[in-house]
Design goal:
Layout (H helix, E strand, L loop, with lengths): L11 H14 L5 E5 L1 H16 L6 E5 L11 H6 L7 H12 L22 E6 L5 H13 L4 E6 L14 H11 L1
Helix pairs in contact: 1-2
């Protein structure tokens, strides 16, 4: 229930995530999960925790995360043409509305822009053909380089964040069951 762009551009959403995390952390261990842009916020939280000298989450679950908003790098933008759930024009507009005039070089908006200092146990699920598959793979690599245990799960033939079809799709049910495990 965080503030959303365009009414509330960066850094409103990550600040809300940090505030919620601090409140939850006061009660004990915290596992953070996020899908798509929420995965970006979950990864960005690792950088916020490092800056604020907070204990990082005890675990992460990332579903089809975006991890780098720099469209100039080309990976995300080039794959948008074949993505069935995120039209290229919409993806570019959404990122522009979120960042407004902020550069996508800050690890708080593009977590892969800097070395991960913390790497809790993480599960990452993504569809093999989706536009964000390269981000998911790069996030897994970055977390592993930082010493984290990462379980990457790739699902062929699925759209972006197919897990929302749990209860109606065996593949989505299997993915959710895997997260629970």
């Amino acid at each position: 229930d965080y503030r959303l762009a365009p009414e509330h551009p960066f850094p409103a959403a990550p600040k809300d995530v940090l505030a919620a995390y601090r409140a939850l952390r006061a009660d004990g261990p915290v596992m953070v999960a996020g899908d798509s842009a929420g995965g970006c916020l979950a990864l960005g939280l690792l950088h916020w925790c490092a800056r604020a000298a907070l204990q990082p989450p005890d675990a992460l679950a990332l579903l089809s995360p975006i991890a780098d908003l720099d469209l100039a790098k080309g990976g995300f933008q080039n794959r948008l043409a074949s993505e069935i759930l995120i039209p290229a024009r919409w993806g570019r507009r959404a990122i522009a509305a979120y960042l407004q005039d902020h550069e996508p070089l800050d690890p708080l908006d593009s977590p892969l822009a800097a070395f991960m200092l913390a790497a809790p146990p993480t599960v990452i699920q993504y569809a093999r053909e989706e536009a964000l598959a390269p981000d998911a793979r790069r996030a897994a690599d970055a977390l592993e380089r930082a010493g984290g245990s990462v379980q990457s799960e790739t699902y062929p033939g699925m759209p972006h964040v197919w897990q929302i079809h749990a209860g109606r799709s065996h593949t989505a049910d299997d993915a959710i069951a895997s997260l629970g495990t």
